[in-house]
Amino acid sequence: MDEKEKQEQEFYERLEKRGVTRRDFMKFCTFLTATMGLSASYVAKVANVFAATPKRTPVVWLHFAECTGCTESVLRTMYPWVDELVLEILSIEYHETIMAAAGHQAEENLQEALKKYKGEFICICEGAISTKDGGVYGKIGGRTFLEVAKDVVPKAAAVVAIGQCACYGGVQAAAPNPGGFKGVKEALNLKRREIIHLPGCPPNPINLVGTVANYLLFNKLPQLDSVGRPLFAYGKTIHDQCPRRSHFEMGEFAPSIGSPEADMGWCLYELGCRGPMTYNNCPTAKYNDGTSWPVEAGHPCIGCSEPNFWDYLSPFYQPM
């Protein structure tokens, strides 16, 4: 048995101890491969990203102005073991929510990671950045969010903004926005190809796993749309993939949330659904073990993956 085969065997043994069979794992890889827009011939290669990774990729995860909901979304993935799977291929060097260190020790860990892995780590940013008055409305370890981002982001091999706040400012950037909060790209004046956006409130963790798997599989980030989102996840509108779409075409619109018509699957457009102007794979990826997503559960889409959706797409529950 060579080293690669030994590594794979140890990987599957670790999964089995967590109650995950090889069949469960391959089923997940098939789903992930389809989500990434790859053909079935890539399933084995995607599996190898997890089972035979030669070196764990270092990650620095930064928190700015946010609710930590994006971290919760990733750590509480639809499959209970996928968060552990991610930790098999990534080496989390700095993450304020899950790291044991605190205070000065935590900041020392960050600086050591930046020095040791300069140009090699993936930087994942969560939350918006204050830019007004020098960015004094948000600080970590005595430095403003803006100073931290300017220090860390240029040293990364790849930068991922996860969640609506990190991508486009989120609720912090909603009018009147007294702190001058902006998404990471706008705050640092980055070019589109310098950062990948995974918006949503929260984003679906499968899209982060797919982005990381794409990076490790092809050694590059996936193709992006005009606002920095990977096309494999944000290439189609909610409306085009919606199971209620046929009722829209027939002019069958639910009169209220929770009405018998809504329960029968009638279209929620006249209740303010933003599905026609929102790009995301919610209808196919879903949440909670692939159980459901807002529109399937009877709630109109609010467009949380669109730039500036708080100002642009509100007030909610009113047709546009």
Summarize the structure.
By secondary structure, the chain is α/β, with parallel strands linked by helices.
What is the secondary structure topology, with strand pairs?
Blueprint: H1 3-17, H2 22-35, H3 43-51, E1 57-63, H4 69-75, H5 82-89, E2 90-95, H6 103-116, E3 122-126, E4 129-130, E5 139-140, E6 143-144, H7 145-152, E7 158-162, H8 164-168, E8 181-182, H9 184-188, E9 196-198, H10 205-218, H11 231-234, H12 238-241, H13 245-249, H14 260-263, H15 282-285, H16 309-312
Parallel strand pairs: 1-2, 1-3, 3-7, 7-9
Antiparallel strand pairs: 4-8, 5-6
Explain what you see:
The protein has 320 residues and is α/β, with parallel strands linked by helices. Helix content is 39%, strand content 11%. It has helices spanning 3-17, 22-35, 43-51, 69-75, 82-89, 103-116, 145-152, 164-168, 184-188, 205-218, 231-234, 238-241, 245-249, 260-263, 282-285, 309-312; strands at 57-63, 90-95, 122-126, 129-130, 139-140, 143-144, 158-162, 181-182, 196-198. Strands 2-1-3-7-9 form a five-stranded parallel beta sheet. The protein has a two-stranded antiparallel sheet with strand order 4-8. It has a two-stranded antiparallel ribbon with strand order 5-6. A hairpin with a 2-residue loop joins strand 5 (139-140) and strand 6 (143-144). Helix 2 (22-35) crosses helix 3 (43-51). The radius of gyration is 21 Å and the shape is globular.
